[in-house]
Amino acid sequence: MRVEERLGDGFVRLRVAEAERRQAKHDIRCVEDAAIELLRNARDAGATSIYLASSREGDCRTLTIVDNGSGIPPHLTSRIFDARVTSKLDTMLMDKWGVHGRGMALFSIRENAQEARVVLSRVGMGSVIQVRFDVGTIKERADQSTWPTLAAGGQGDTVVRGPRNIVRACVEFALESKDACNVYCGLPSEILATMRKHAVESYGTNVLEGREDDDAVPIVAMPACAKDARELAAVASQMGMEMSDRTAHRIIRYEIAPLRNVLAQVRPRDAAKGHRHQVPSQRTLPLSEEDRELLVRACTAAFNRVASRYYVVPVAEPSVRCVDGRLVVSIPYAEDE
């Protein structure tokens, strides 16, 4: 089924579908390549704000990209990952990564991913696309925590230095597309916190005001529609970013800080001293729920052992947060009556 014609001596003419599949496999060589293609896709859909949530569990890397672009018509959400499907018949673009508009980028991602899907899309109100990779098969840079720096290029331009990880891909793309869109990159919880903040700034505290139902809300504004932690966790699930009520509660209480766009977080290389400025981390320590529970139980047990000496009792569940490189466990208490 892969061969259109056998030419003899081991030579064959491949069918078009097989040739496309092999080309697609070659197009995406690492997770960072996929991140660039997802960002380009969002930009070319007219997005001015692009949010990339990145997380890893074991050998599975998940990229969830949310944008405020033109969206995908419902009857096409299952077709955009097919070969040669494009919305750019007359608007093919060329940038530093080559031609974009062949209808092969999302197909290439799907061919290399464990899963690739449109999680949510509304025409004129943005999309959520999610892909999962087995990093044992499709490699990624080992160092995913180091932020890049900016340096002056030889021709007066700006170049990006540092490990070629996912965040560097975002910075390079944001630098290339700075006149078109803002890019945000972080953990799913940070991305939800950022979208919630931006929606409140844009629409006020009542995003639903003047709208008939939730489906009339731009996708990037959905997190601001949640009135409590349970609703926010449900919205996160709808957007493909599962989280516990506890994590959602931390977002609502501003214990998870919203992100600045990636260009606002990167710093120039200090050419005179020959070293890089340290970038203050805007990221929270990515504790698992199991480790968070472990900290809470241990601190609560220690508190209970000494509380009676001071005639105090805990009055609420402890919270755990990361502040300026410090892990802070807070235990609200009151006098024991």
What does this structure look like?
30% of the residues lie in helices and 25% in strands. It is α+β, with helices and mostly antiparallel strands. A hairpin with a 2-residue loop joins strand 15 (319-323) and strand 16 (326-330). It has helices at 16-27, 31-44, 105-112, 166-176, 188-203, 229-238, 245-252, 262-265, 289-307; strands at residues 3-8, 11-14, 49-57, 60-67, 93-95, 98-100, 115-121, 127-134, 149-152, 158-161, 182-186, 267-270, 275-276, 312-314, 319-323, 326-330, 333-335. It contains nine helices and 17 strands.
Fold topology:
Layout: E1 3-8, E2 11-14, H1 16-27, H2 31-44, E3 49-57, E4 60-67, E5 93-95, E6 98-100, H3 105-112, E7 115-121, E8 127-134, E9 149-152, E10 158-161, H4 166-176, E11 182-186, H5 188-203, H6 229-238, H7 245-252, H8 262-265, E12 267-270, E13 275-276, H9 289-307, E14 312-314, E15 319-323, E16 326-330, E17 333-335
Parallel strand pairs: 3-11, 9-12
Antiparallel strand pairs: 1-2, 3-4, 4-8, 5-6, 7-8, 9-10, 12-13, 14-17, 15-16
Helix pairs in contact: 1-3, 2-4, 5-7, 6-7
